[in-house]
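DM from R.C. (forwarded with permission)

"hey, sorry to bug you on a friday — could you get me a structure for this? deadline for the figure draft is monday and I only need the backbone to look sensible"
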Amino acid sequence: MRVRFVLSQIGNGLRRNLAMAVSVVLVTFISLAFVGAAILLQTQISNMKDDWYDKVEVSIFLCPASSSVPNCAGGEATEEQVEDLQAVLTSDALSDYVDEVYVESKEQAYEAYLEQFGDQDWAQSITAEQMQMSLRVSLVDPEMYQVVADEVTGRPGVEYVVDQRSILEPLFLILNRATLLAAGLAALMTVTAIMLITTTIRLSAMSRRRETSIMRLVGASNLFIQLPFMLEGALAALLGALLAAGGLWLGVRYIIEDWLASSVRWVNFVSTSDVLLIAPILIGIGIVLAAISSLVSLSRYTKV
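My reply, with the result:
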């Protein structure tokens, strides 16, 4: 009997404030969609760092026959200089930082060049002799690039040192800023959702003051009186959370998995399984929003 009464009260409240209830659902949907997007973006950044940072190498480009760099005034790097560099990189002093060292000859550099640009007409004018010899260094920890760079920079035969991580950092910076933007919008929309849920519960409570007063006269507890209002807000927030999770799932499924992942195969994109993992988080946030809004509204509009 009590359950039926509570359900009837919820139905009456939603019918009386249908427009506000729909607004709550939509605002909650948008705010939690931004929250989910921020989490997925951060997951994507983490995936890319895990995949790419492990493959990052330090490239030590050796002096070519003609170079304007003062360190290469003596001409092209000699075999003795190359051996000295290899000895430094494989020494005990750098054993904690260097994982592997291998030499890329001019011929190997030329093959890599043709593989990347061989279909271009202008690429045919380059010969293997014009390519630059280099040492490729895989690091134990890519964050410790500077230790290795400082050790070899300025040594005889070294023209310059390049950390491949510097190519990736601008991309990660853009993605991190996009995450912050999504998080900021999510926070703004979350505040809006709380205000809307609070207003909806308040209007519902004010429209049923007579029923509330009668229930108090017959000895109804605070929980029994407030429960229908709390459930109205929770139901609207739950629907918004489910819509947000569903929208993110569809976006990842059809935009990322079907389109981006098939076009850009070298990136480990987020998947629908990641969306399913964050769906409970979105639902939990929706319930918390409803709880906060209910406490704010009901403490004032249904008090004795």
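R.C.: lifesaver. Residues 57-163 form a domain with the Alpha-Beta Plaits fold (CATH 3.30.70.3040).
me: no worries. Residues 165-207 form the longest helix (43 residues).
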